[in-house]
Amino acid sequence: MGGIHVDEPAGLLAGIIRQPFVLFYHFFAVALYAIWIRLSQANPLYLPFVFLSSFGVFWKACVVIFPYIFSELRS
């Protein structure tokens, strides 16, 4: 996609950008993009299963990132 979709994650990896909410934004952008791809390519017959698994993807993203964000906010 280019632009900030490359510059900001590269800046995070290089240690140039030190804002945790940039990581939060890009982390959920990738998770929501994965959900969008799953929904757009799903067979209509399997949509209930895809919605359930998409919720699982979002839940796992929350479980992974929120402890990090909370620890960053405390310090």
Helix/strand order, N-terminal first: HHH
Q: Provide the residue-averaged pLDDT.
A: 88
Q: Which structural class do the helices and strands define?
A: mainly alpha
Cα end-to-end separation = 33 Å
The total count of strands amounts to 0
* Largest sheet composition: none
Residue share in helices?
A: over 70%
Which parts are unreliable, with pLDDT below 50 for 5 consecutive residues or more? Answer: none
Describe the global form. flat
Rg = 15 Å
What share of the residues does DSSP label as strand, in percent?
under 5%
Tally of DSSP helical segments: 3
Task: Give the arrangement of secondary structure elements.
Blueprint: H1 4-14, H2 20-40, H3 47-74
Structural features, described:
The protein is an all-alpha fold. The chain is built from three helices and no strands. The chain has helices at residues 4-14, 20-40, 47-74. Helix 2 runs antiparallel to helix 3. The protein is flat and about 45 Å long. It starts with a helix and ends with a helix.
Task: Supply the key terms.
single chain; 75 residues; mainly alpha; 80% helix; 0% strand; flat
